[in-house]
Design goal:
alpha/beta, TIM Barrel, nine-stranded mixed sheet, single chain, 557 residues
Length: 557
């Protein structure tokens, strides 16, 4: 007796790159039959559904992502992505870990236990992200922590080795972490935005198996030749990259992943968005689905998911009409968990972890004093573009009045330690375009100190104080206008429903755009502004950081 019989389906066969007319039988959470043609007579099932020619695909598997980037707890994230067909993820919780240490990883494992979304975990490798000389972090994960966490059955990898320059130079604790992870049989994930040639080989020789950073056809081919699994996120998907993928004789090591997805983008899709984008660029749909299901399962070593075949878990999606990838229903273990854009199973809340609070004296205007006399001063500044998170260094004369820049093309940046009373790291940003107001956030990759960016010193102080009084979050302040998103869990994520969180993010981004910002993803850009492994120059609580040289830069050379 089958539990569920799905008839008259168009089944995606991701192993043979084809779609066939057939039927599926599910028993005890697994696929018993995936067959072509009509259902034979005499087959009994407790429930039978006629799909009337609807397409059925494997549940999507996101092999590299960070739940915290959605600003949601694991249960709220599951509610958000199951309706889009994502049924399995491997998350690297390095945001929580950088604030809470091992407790952040343990919270992720415990809070995701029993969810209909299968959540696997990578132990963060860069906690802190770089040297304590470059930034102040609260969390720490060492080799002994890796060995202990690797005992958990849902821990599959050592998370992205982001301090690639430090590893290549042999000046970090990373070799010890990698050795512990390899001894435990974990995958070793990479992060190589700028490496190539012999330097890439030196980095790869440590046992690095993947990269998910911005790709080009040339980079993709070199990494495949050097043994990588190449993970393409949305910013890497363009006509040239897709053409290079389609020319490969073997695509088994090319995956689609999301990496970071802000909450205001989740209502429109998750991994499904990348499948649709790839297809719009000429990637055949069945093969694009394979890059988001079968191939991630093979990479992660998950033999029970990734394709529609007998014995596999009954994780599948029923697509809506049309030829694109729009999910109508999602099943996990043969149980309907989402329908028509809504999660249909209630998920229980989990207690928030303790620690990582925002604890420092209230910010005042004196902390935002640039410490130079009135007049022109040669200044190291950051310049951004409107598309991605790359920032470059420019040394230009800047006019100051009473310790404050008066050039309207510049925004001030301040990064305060999350705890303690040290003065902030200061910087100046060109190209962001904010003409009024200020933004502040306690989610500020990866050490998550208090980031404040603005045009007005008064608004920057008000934004910082708003978050200090609320215990964290994100806020935009412009005079009496205050738009605040609370992030009550470790001042990083929220257990509010997606609609509430996404609505506040949209409101803050709209305010930034009214203030003159033209960046495609302003909040994502701002929260990566303190990330000291993101090319080429960033601002930490210690000041300007030359990412490639792993060195602090003076603000006034």
């Amino acid at each position: 007796m089958l539990d569920l019989l799905l008839t008259h389906a168009r089944v995606f066969d991701v192993t043979r790159d084809r779609v066939f007319d057939g039927w599926l039988g599910i028993r005890a959470g697994r696929l018993q039959y995936v067959e072509e043609g009509e259902v034979p007579g005499g087959l009994l099932a407790r429930q039978t559904r006629d799909l009337r020619g609807a397409r059925v695909v494997p549940g999507l598997i996101d092999a590299h992502m960070h739940i915290e980037s959605s600003l949601l707890t694991p249960r709220r994230f599951a509610e958000a992505v199951l309706p889009h067909g994502t049924t399995t993820v491997m998350t690297d919780p390095h945001e929580l870990a950088n604030v809470l240490g091992v407790a952040g990883v343990q919270y992720t494992l415990e809070a995701s236990e029993g969810l209909p979304l299968r959540v696997y975990v990578a132990v963060p490798s860069c906690v802190p992200a770089t040297s304590p000389d470059l930034e102040t972090a609260l969390g720490h994960i060492g080799a002994d922590d890796v060995r202990r966490l690797a005992l958990h059955p849902r821990v599959l990898a050592l998370g992205e080795v982001m301090d690639y320059q430090g590893l290549a130079a042999g000046v970090t604790q990373l070799p010890a972490l990698i050795e512990a992870a390899q001894a435990a049989g974990l995958l070793i994930e990479g992060h190589t935005p700028t490496l190539g040639g012999m330097v890439l080989s030196d980095y790869t020789a440590y046992g690095i198996l993947s990269d998910h950073t911005l790709s080009t056809p040339e980079k993709l081919l070199e990494q495949l030749s050097k043994g990588y699994t190449v993970m393409l996120q949305e910013k890497s998907l363009n006509a040239e990259v897709v053409r290079a993928v389609l020319e490969l004789p073997d695509r088994s090591r090319v995956l689609l992943v999301t990496d970071d997805v802000m909450p205001n983008r989740l209502p429109g899709g998750h991994l499904s968005r990348l499948v649709n984008l790839a297809a719009s660029l000429g990637w055949p749909l069945v093969d694009a689905v394979a890059a988001a299901s079968l191939r991630p399962a093979m990479y992660l070593g998950l033999r029970h998911v990734g394709l529609l075949a007998p014995g596999r878990a009954a994780d599948l999606c029923v697509l809506g009409p049309g030829e694109d990838f729009q999910v109508d229903e999602t099943y996990v273990n043969g149980t309907l968990v989402a329908r028509q854009g809504r999660c249909v199973t209630e998920l229980q809340a989990f207690p928030a972890p303790v620690g990582g609070q925002l604890l420092r004296p209230e910010v005042d205007a004196s902390a935002l004093q640039f410490g130079v006399s009135t007049g022109l001063h040669l200044t190291n500044t950051l310049t951004c573009n409107t598309r991605n998170t790359f920032t470059r260094l420019e040394t230009v004369p800047v006019a100051f009045q009473d310790g404050w820049p008066v050039d309207p093309a510049l925004n001030a940046v301040a990064v305060f330690t999350r705890q303690g009373s040290a003065p902030p790291g200061l910087g100046l940003l060109r190209g962001f375009g904010l003409q009024a107001g200020a933004f502040a956030s306690t989610l500020a990759h990866d050490s998550h100190n208090l980031l404040v960016v603005g045009q007005s010193r008064e608004d920057m102080v008000a934004a910082a104080r708003t978050l200090q009084r609320a215990g964290g979050g994100m806020v935009y302040v412009r005079g009496d206008e205050v738009i605040h998103l609370p992030l009550e869990v470790a001042a990083l994520i929220s257990d509010a429903p997606l609609g509430e969180v996404a609505g506040q993010v949209e409101a803050i981004e709209a305010a930034l755009r009214r203030g003159g910002v033209t960046h495609l993803h302003p909040i994502l850009f701002l929260t990566i502004l303190p990330l000291t492994v993101s090319p080429q120059v960033k601002v930490s609580d210690r000041g300007l950081v030359d990412v490639e040289r792993r060195a602090l830069l003076p603000l006034f050379p």
